[in-house]
Amino acid sequence: MYDVNPSGQFYLRWRWETPGEAMVLEWYRVKNSDKPVSSGTLRLGPQPGTIIMKGNFMMGKEWVGTLHDDGSVSYVGKGLLKMRYTIRVDEQGNYEETYSNGYVVRYAPGANSATPVAVAQTPPATPAPSPAPVSAPTPAPAAPEKPAPVVAKQQPVPPAKPIKAPRQLTEEDTKRIWKSVQASRVRSLEQARQNELARQEAAQKAAIQAQIWAAQQAQREAEEAEAEAELEAERQQKAAAWNQMTRANEQALNNSLQNLRDNTARIQAQAQAQQQARQSAPVDPLGAAERQRQVELIRQANQRQDDDASRYAAQRQQSEQPRADAPTSTGTTTSQQRSSDAGRASTDTDANRCVSSAEVRVNDTSQGNTAAYVTNGCATPVDVKVCLMTDTKWNCGVTWGLASQKSWSHSSFHATGAVFVDAKVAGSSRALRSPN
Amino acid sequence: MRNDSTGMRRAMVAAYGMLVALPAIAAPSKDTAGGVQTYLARMTQEVVTKVYFVDAQERTNYVTGKYSGDVKTSKISNIARTKEELRQLPEQLVDKQLWDVRAVTLDAIDAEGRPNECATRITAVTASDYDETKSDVRQENATFSYKLITTSEQWKYEPLTKFTTPAQVIEWRNAHVSRSPDSQITVTSRGQAFPKIQLSFAAGDLDLADRIEYAMKFLLMSCSESAGHGS
């Protein structure tokens, strides 16, 4: 059938896809009729008097058609877009599509149809767009139509089943129903009871689990508190021990310094007395023996001083070690760092700690000469200054870079016995001190 | 004569006991399929009666729809005229399942539209509005101006007529009745446009649940093809 609209460019054709089940409606372009531009498949609907039209356009959109008594079929699209239209075969045998906006399209039988007829188009009530859907390729995308009467004839709606009246139940039947209801009630109550039991059991399990978790948490907290208390007690114990040792060391140091001051004062007094004696009696046959005795006293005093210093150094090192090892709030890493730095820091800051006290030797190299020996006990080279007190002034000598475990001496004539020693790590920027 | 009188009294007592015991007497108006149909229809007004239309993909009360929206931007400045811009958001297809669709009208009418006491047509359903809208306004400040950005979104779904056009019908000849622990009585049947439809009465009361279940099973037995079927 051809579109009778002067501007119409299409014609319709129907064919069976599956005889008796599916009929295909195709739109062909008049000027290019090789293949259809659109098609729709018509099938009987699930209910009598209904037809389903599924287009190959608009993503396979479907329309549900309802057959009316006058032979027309009204189509309503499934989904949001209803796109309603009605088709019928008019009195002249034309296939007519009427859209909801009033637009009417008629197709007259074509030349190869049995009864070709030419018909004029009915103008729409309002200017309407082409019946073809906007998104469709060309002709009538939204214009799914079907020759309803034809289909109705070809696919007659099966007659509806006769209505079967319900059976009149006997008293026995109603009793059976009632028993069934009671049994169902019992089952549902039992099921509800089981559900409630399961719920209670689950709740109980959850509560027990919560209690277990709470107990475990409390135990963890108690253990942590106990460990914390032990740690704190140990820390305080170590701190007390360290303080006690520090006090003892300080006391020992003070004692040693006092001894040193006493020795120095005594030696100076003796030296002064000798000086006075020499001045008053230049030739004193007993002088040499007395000096020898005094030098021996000096040597013994130096030896005691060395012993005291060594003992003190050992004690101090012992006392510093626990402090370095004691736990602190900053953690083990800091303590270890401080501990490892301790030896080097003591040497860097005061090489005098590891350089031995001066050993004074009278007439060491020649008559009347007094020498003072020192030994580098440090692990690194040191610079050492040794000063000997003479009758008039201090006589000082310096050696640079005295290697570890090496000794060096400085000597002077007319030494009175007083010795001054200062040392520093070789390369240190600190200047060597002088006795004055 | 005396024996006859005693027998009559016994028969009356038995009949009275039956009247008291059978819920059918207390529930539907009459022990007929038509009376039971009327009773069930009336129950939709008294208890929550939900319907579930299950499609071939096992989706319940499934509706599709369209998402749309727009963004209106107003640039307001102290030194220039206000500029407005409206931008449409891309439309999208959306869907969802409705979990509270209720039957409000039941009729004893079959799929062909004929009065039939062995069929219950779910003629009308209702649900709270399930279309959604959302509006959001935010402000972006600049040195001499600010922007008011208003976003409006809509999710509009198919109407409930999807489930009533055509109306779905419960065929009591081929239905199944079940009762849940919370006293919901449900009849399951094959629909016309849906592979499965369910009509569920939330009785909330054991005795009322009994009466509704009795009514449903009465219809099952009355309409069954084989006599004696009923539980």
Integer-rounded radius of gyration of chain B: 28 Å
> pLDDT average of chain A, as an integer?
77
Give the number of DSSP strands of chain B: 11
How many beta-strand elements of chain A? Answer: 16
Helix/strand order of chain B, N-terminal first: HHHEEEEEEEEEEEH
Order of adjacent strands in the largest pleated sheet of chain A: 1-10-9-8-7-6-5-4-3-2
User: Mean pLDDT score of chain B, rounded?
Assistant: 86
Shape call of chain A: elongated
Helix content of chain A: 25-40%
Binned strand content of chain B: 35-45%
Keywords for this structure?
heterodimer; A: 436 residues; alpha+beta; 10-stranded antiparallel sheet; 3-stranded antiparallel sheet; 4 helices; elongated; B: 231 residues; 4-stranded antiparallel sheet; 11 strands; disordered N terminus
Written account of the structure:
The complex is a heterodimer of chains A (436) and B (231). Chain A has helices at residues 148-154, 171-280, 287-325, 332-349; strands spanning 2-3, 10-18, 22-29, 38-44, 50-55, 62-67, 73-77, 85-89, 95-99, 104-108, 359-362, 369-375, 382-390, 394-402, 407-413, 415-425. With 436 residues, chain A is an alpha+beta fold. In chain A, the strands form three sheets. In chain A, strands 1-10-9-8-7-6-5-4-3-2 form a ten-stranded antiparallel sheet, with helices on one face. Chain A is elongated and about 170 Å long. The N and C termini of chain A lie far apart (135 Å). The longest helix of chain B has 20 residues, at 2-21. The A-B interface holds A 46-48, 79-80, 160, 163-169, 171, 173-178, 180-185, 187-189, 191-192, 195 and B 18, 21-24, 31-33, 64-66, 110-112, 114-118, 156, 158, 166, 173, 179-183, 192-193, 206, 209-210, 213-214, 217-219, 221-224, 227-228, 230-231.
